[in-house]
Amino acid sequence: MKIIIQRITLLIIVLSLFSCKSTGLKIGNFDVGKLVDQGVKIWDANNIDQAQEVQFGKNMSAVLLGARGLYQNKNINEYVNQVGMWLAINSSRPDLPWRFGVINSSSINAFAAPGGYVFITLGMLHKLESEAQLAAVLAHEIIHVTQKHYLNALKDSSLRGAITETLFMSAEAYQNNTGANVNDQQYRAWAKKITLATQDIYSKGLDKTDEFQADQQGMLLLAKSGYDAYALIDNLQLLASIAADDASLALLYKTHPTAEQRLIALSEQAEKLSGINGLSLVKRYNKRISTE
Amino acid sequence: MCHNRYFLLLILLIFSSFSTLSAPKVKQGKLIKTSTLFAQASKQSKAVMQLKIDESVVIHKRQRAWYQITTQEKPPHSGWVNMLNIRFVGVSKRQGELGVAALLSSISNDTRATSSTGIRGFDEKDLANAKANMQQVALLDTYVVTQDSAIKFAKQGGLATKKMSNEQVKK
Predict the structure, then answer these.
(1) For residue range A137-155, what is the model confidence (pLDDT) as tens digits?
(2) CB distance from B88 to chain A under 8 Å?
(3) CA distance A44 to chain B (A)
(4) I want to staple A52 with a disulfide (CB 3.0 to 4.6 A). Which of A9, A168, B125, B151 is the partner?
(5) Beta-sheet pairing, A99-103 with A26-27
């Protein structure tokens, strides 16, 4: 009798371990639904492969660009892509499908999304004075991508609600798995989930530690790529000089430490890189930006 | 006579735009801590004097982590100070649709209605009202450059990958 009770107990334990609810949605052979359902408890960004990471970034970017579209000037966007791609080549993840874009907004900000998506606002672009300063903005964002800061942010309890399988699925994959077409309710539910999750993630912002790491590693990436690494400090000096309650900085300061805090945190890195010369490329910046 | 007036106006316009473009980008700054003013952009150079906290300076240029400055006291002293010991003097904040914000808005191809309460920027409200826009993502794809063209672009600017020491890479 005792053995039977022990076996029943064991069976209950085993069943409970494998009874995580899954919707069965898959990308390739990967059961995203199961991962996500279990992931609420054991989220690990390393369980997400590159294809899923890129899809996540693409979905987030779609929402970001739904809030504010791209500045539709091919020359300027290509210039930002050239600077960004050169930095990406020198980063720890050169093989991601990197994409850089200028968002048509007068606010001063920059954004990254997983998988290689990086954006800078037109307002920020106009505040800068050199290619090295542009590279500094992009380098900071590139580090958020290479270090998977947004994927890791999903570990945070306040973002648990944002983890849904739809984050890692394209509209097409969702349609193939559910039979939903673009007009029906299921498809609209996909879009709504993506939007809500992205709004959560960007509104909350990343951990301060991630921001400080992006500054420090960003300076290193600038130096490695041949740029003047201190351009990143130039940018922070510039931000520090704009009144903190300036409307153009509202979202930046809601999601980032203040420029003053970031400047203080960079003193050690500035000392480490003191022997390295780099290029500012002021003339090329003015020439390329003035093409608008 | 009328032609002369237009000619004078044209000359004035040319000179005013030239002076804007060629004006040296001198900035006003303030010391955030007591600092040594050095003769060169190096800690190993001669110390000129000690600068006090809150002292106002004019920043002429930067070399690596050093600003070349001139003090505003009389007689003025010039030299180099660690850039992290100085902050730019703040600019007044932007308000409404005037000034820089209006300029940026007029440059951009944004056609959204003007808000009467703030500048047209990217704020939390924009994000809250956002809907996924896949057409914009497709447009983004058209701006992508290849790694080969980025390497060529870097070479044209004189950029080259630098090998970093273990000490520099150490986190």
Answers:
(1) 999 999 999 999 988 887 6
(2) yes
(3) 23
(4) A168
(5) unpaired
